[in-house]
Design goal:
This protein has 396 residues and is an alpha/beta fold. It has 2 domains: 273 residues, QueA-like; 95 residues, Thrombin, subunit H (Beta Barrel). The protein is 23% helix and 27% strand. It is built from 10 helices and 18 strands. A 10-stranded mixed sheet has the order 2-1-18-17-14-3-12-13-16-15, covered by helices on one side. The chain has a 6-stranded antiparallel sheet with strand order 5-6-7-10-9-8, covered by helices on one side. It has a two-stranded parallel sheet with strand order 4-11.
């Protein structure tokens, strides 16, 4: 039993950052290390990290996943892309599809859109048509001309950036840049890995000066990240699955780390921890697929050393002759979870009673409340466009 009421707090509306600061790295940085709290600026991150740290970033890129169609009657239909269905179900491949694609979507005003009805969007020389293929499964088939354009190119021209619902505003032109990390590469997320929004070239240069290494993996953040926990016992919450892409170099860098492994954001942390559990599964079954269910970390054998699990993943890649693997994780990190890979976390301040706050509580134990109270007292800005924290819990 994990009582959700134990993981809530009062977040005044005025503390939610509706817009980012003018400069990314001028946000506040709360540093929590060995039980002590210090207040700094994000531009001071390099000086705040332990020697020989290695940072792991999520390089996913937010796609303009909101499509707005207007019927001849004037009714607005919103199509919010969630997961690709055909001809490719892997996000990376789906973004390169040309001509036609079917996606699982969240549809606004669904009752006004009969199955089989075609809606159309015109943007300069580009035409995008949407047909409701399956109302129950909310599957939409999209076709476009010119057909040689990739789906990614079509979305850039016709879609809108999907801001978090708690911002209570529509996306503006500036959000196209500011709701992306400066290092985003792999298009496919419908929400930004917001811990990374604070990084700038200036911060990266400071990290280089301290010889703090960095590496990039991918988790395509889904809309499920905003899904509220609606059950009193948080353990009963149904976690969302997300696609992850990990390279052989990622595994080698983890194995060769001689300092703290610091995840930049909860999505990077969930990816890194999922790798351990995939390794555990491979020891038992060398043919196991890269799929981590939400309950597996609490059911699988857990005595395997971290490096043995990571080595199992590396050897699987070597045997398969691949440099990267694509998988899916629904890992649900809640109080009681034992962290296998990560020793540090850079993250924003999260909503009360959310899966993200449960992860924070799992990482820093009861100190989460002290950290959040300190941030509220010190006028920190909260949520996606808010301030940041560096969490380095006590060892052992």
């Amino acid at each position: 039993m994990i009582s959700l009421s134990d993981y809530t707090y009062h977040l005044p509306d005025q503390r939610i950052a509706r817009y980012p600061l003018a400069e990314r790295d001028q946000s506040k940085l709360l540093v929590y290390q060995n039980g002590q709290i210090a207040h700094r600026q994000f531009s001071d991150l390099a000086a705040s990290l332990p020697d020989k740290s290695i940072l792991f970033f999520n390089d996913t890129k937010v796609i303009p996943a909101r499509l707005l169609f207007k019927k001849e009657t004037g009714a607005l239909i919103e199509v919010f892309l969630l997961d690709p269905v055909a001809p490719a179900s892997l996000v990376q491949q789906a973004m390169e599809v040309t001509g036609e694609a079917t996606w699982h979507c969240a549809i606004g005003n669904l009752k006004r859109w009969p199955v089989g009805t075609c809606l159309s969007l015109q943007h300069q020389t580009l035409t995008l048509e949407a047909t409701l293929a399956d109302a129950e499964k909310q599957r939409v088939t999209l076709r476009w001309t010119p057909e040689h354009l990739t789906f990614s190119e079509v979305m850039v021209e016709t879609g809108k950036i999907p801001l978090p619902p708690y911002l209570h505003r529509d996306a503006e032109e500036s959000d196209k840049e500011r709701y992306q990390t400066v290092y985003s590469q792999a298009a496919g997320a419908v929400a930004a890995p917001t811990a990374g929004l604070h990084f700038t070239d200036r911060v990266f240069s400071a990290l280089d000066e301290r010889s703090i290494r960095r590496d990039f993996l991918t988790l395509h953040v889904s809309a499920g990240t905003f899904q509220p926990v609606k059950v009193a016992n948080a353990a009963e919450h149904q976690m969302h699955a997300e696609q992850v892409i990990v390279s052989r170099a990622n595994i080698e860098n983890l194995l060769n780390a001689n300092g703290p492994i610091v995840a930049v954001g909860t999505t990077s942390m969930r990816t890194l921890e999922s790798l351990y559990w995939y390794g555990v599964k491979l020891i038992d079954n060398p043919q196991a697929a890269f799929l981590v269910a939400q309950d597996e970390p609490y059911q699988l054998p857990c005595e395997l050393p971290r490096d043995a699990a990571l080595e199992a993943v590396l050897q699987k890649m070597v045997r398969s002759g691949v440099d990267r693997i694509t998988g899916s994780t629904a890992i649900y990190i809640v109080p009681g979870y034992t962290f296998r890979v990560c020793q540090g976390l850079i993250t924003n301040f999260h909503q009360p009673a959310s899966t993200l706050l449960l992860l924070i509580a799992a990482f820093v134990d009861e100190d989460w409340r002290t950290i959040y109270q300190a941030a509220l007292r010190s006028d920190y800005r909260f949520l996606s466009y808010g301030d940041s924290s560096l969490l380095l819990p006590k060892k052992g």
